[in-house]
Amino acid sequence: MTVGIDQINFYVPSFYVDMAKLAESRQVDPNKFLIGIGQNEMAVSPMSQDIVSMGANAAKDIITEDDKKQISMVIVATESAIDSAKASAVQIHNLLGIQPFARCIEMKEACYAATPAIQLAKDYLANRPDEKVLVIASDTARYGLESGGEPTQGAGAVAMMITQNPRILELNDDAVAFTEDVYDFWRPSGQSYPLVDGALSKDAYIHSFQESWNEYARRHHISLDYFKSLCFHVPFTKMGKKALDSILTDDIDEQTKERLTSGYDAATYYNRYVGNIYTGSLYLSLISLLETHHELNAGDTIGLFSYGSGSVGEFFSGKIVEGYRDALDIEGHKNLLNHRTEISVDTYEAFFKRFDNLEFNHEVELANESKGIFYLESIHNHIRNYNTLN
Ligand code: COA
């Protein structure tokens, strides 16, 4: 019996900003954003898409009527929570029409939380062949207009159905987590934007990766040539590349170096056009790898590094299942990314400010959304009301 990812899907809002234009507007050389940070486009969330609606939108296309009866736990991982008490998983559970006898919780540890959610689901399902766990990673990454972190923003959600005998990726029993108390990025309660020490956050990420990987390799007697490819948490595509390069030392053979480097390009292709989606970034990278890498085979092992500032890192692995491509929505994902609307820097700034003031203007914001999509319709007395677009 194996447990792993049976279905995986993502949702991103239908608006984006071109990073070269954002750079020009900030009087920065565009190559800093395009090459130095490694981002081409950045998803921008309208007021009508919050972590609940994006999470529901990511999940709705992978859930069948039978799934709704079998899901016994919904876990939402987020670091942009809209409530300090009520779990967004409860609202998503309602929107999706999942049977009522289910656990719903929200998990937090910066960008890392979807990984312990999956590991929890894996252990939970070991003795439950007829149940399923829905894990959703949903975030709006906001650092502030003209802030240092502005080019590393984004918005989106990834939904994963975790089951026994999965159709996409079997999770191995090998995870190694590494915890270190560091103030590289944090958001004190009540603050709209995170506090971040950019340089420290890059160093802390690489340190966490090296500690997790070295301990993983030591415990399991595994070296890099064991992996077909590696996926990283991707706050921006250059970040994971720095971490990867840090372990491609002179003693690693050229074939392995080339394989992992070209695999990294496939594993960050979607991220390059979405930006940082915090908890979902590693799993968007996994989707990108599965859908854009042309030489993956059943039985290949993929290494995954999850990182959440503060910090917790985790290195684990999964094995690709025969016929995995049939379980992916490759065309749907390409359409979602290719049919977004580019907005000017001025419009992006207007969207951004509306989030701060919780202002709605649906005529503009829903113009290009497709039918059946969940959206936030209003907030009355601090209660969020959702609807679907018909
Ligand atoms: N052409 C090409 N590259 C250029 C360039 C140009 N004209 N100008 C600068 N660069 C490169 C820099 O050399 C640097 O590359 P390096 O890291 O390989 O040295 C990169 O662009 C970024 O430059 P930097 O000066 O570090 O940018 P910054 O001070 O604006 O900070 C972040 C960048 C990512 C740290 C900042 O956006 C941030 O704090 N983001 C949020 C935190 C985050 O995502 N942390 C990641 C770990 S979770």
Automatic annotation (TrEMBL):
Belongs to the thiolase-like superfamily. HMG-CoA synthase family. The active site is at E79 (proton donor/acceptor), C111 (acyl-thioester intermediate), H233 (proton donor/acceptor). Its EC number is 2.3.3.-, 2.3.3.10. This is 3-hydroxy-3-methylglutaryl-CoA synthase. GO terms for molecular function: hydroxymethylglutaryl-CoA synthase activity. Residues 257-386 form the Hydroxymethylglutaryl-coenzyme A synthase C-terminal domain. Pfam families: HMG_CoA_synt_C, HMG_CoA_synt_N. GO terms for biological process: acetyl-CoA metabolic process. Substrate binds at G148. Keywords: Acyltransferase, Transferase. (3S)-3-hydroxy-3-methylglutaryl-CoA binds at D29, Y143, K242, N276. Residues 2-164 form the Hydroxymethylglutaryl-coenzyme A synthase N-terminal domain.
